[in-house]
Design goal:
Layout: H1 7-10, H2 21-29, H3 34-42, H4 48-52, H5 60-74, H6 83-101
Helix pairs in contact: 3-6, 5-6
InterPro entries: DjlA_DnaK_co-chaperone, DnaJ_domain, J_dom_sf
Pfam families: DnaJ
Protein name: DnaJ-like protein
Length: about 100
């Protein structure tokens, strides 16, 4: 019998502390509160819209697309040569997204 591409994934055991999909989603949603985001951006001259590069009238879909693009560009794993700057930019991007989506 030929194994499929996802057969190994289907048998992956997460019962020993890795959590399930619902737990991962809940922890993702709790990463940054609106208050934390406002605190991070309070010292910035930029607005959340300018950080993400979207218009003030942008839809939620446009904001999400811009967030994914920016966070992908500035993710610390992709910017090992400028780790400090990447971490600061990532925090700003996540804060801007948190404010615009809550």
């Amino acid at each position: 019998m030929k194994k499929g591409f996802l057969d190994g994934y289907k048998t992956y055991d997460t019962s020993n502390g890795y959590g399930n999909a619902k737990q991962w989603w809940q922890s993702f949603n709790q990463r940054m509160s609106k208050e934390d985001a406002e605190e991070i951006l309070s010292s910035q001259a930029e607005t959340p819209h300018s950080i993400l590069g979207v218009a003030i009238s942008a839809t939620q879909a446009e904001i999400k697309k811009a967030f994914r693009s920016k966070i992908n560009e500035w993710h610390p794993d992709r910017n090992q040569h400028r780790l400090q700057e990447a971490e600061e930019q990532s925090k700003k991007i996540i804060a801007a997204y948190s404010i615009l989506t809550t």
